[in-house]
Amino acid sequence: MTAPTRVLVADDEPLIRLLLRHTLERRPGLEIVGEAADGAEALSLIEALQPDIVVLDLSMPEPDGLEVTRRLRAARNACGIVVFSSTTGAEPAVLACGADRFVDKAAGVEDAVDAVVALSALRGPGG
């Protein structure tokens, strides 16, 4: 049996975190290891929990998701990054900073989870 892909969700909206958590938990092979409400908490939890994939919102406080992505890549953190955001026109900047996927919140939570599943498949067992 392969290890599950460990996922951390970071969004300042509790309802979005709840929807992501419930949708991710229904997918086989994924394990939610933590949730963060802002960028500082996300960075701390990523360091402590070492998730395989992080789902990030861009408009989180202190620092925002784009800065979290920059810091993770500058630190050579190999976790996958799926940005799930309603920030219009942000996709080019997000991908240029090192995120693996961008999903517009207007597409829905299922699309974000599909992106996590696809990234998990590309990364191989356990991540």
Automatic annotation (TrEMBL):
CDD domains per UniProt = REC_CheB-like
Please give the residue positions where the record annotates the modification 4-aspartylphosphate.
D57
The highest taxon in the source lineage is: Bacteria
Which PROSITE patterns does this entry report, sorted A to Z?
RESPONSE_REGULATORY
Q: Which residues form a coiled coil?
A: none
Q: What keyword terms does UniProt attach to this protein?
A: DNA-binding, Phosphoprotein, Transcription, Transcription regulation
Fetch the InterPro entries from UniProt: CheY-like_superfamily, Sig_transdc_resp-reg_receiver, WalR-like
Every Response regulatory domain range: 6-120
The protein's name is Response regulator
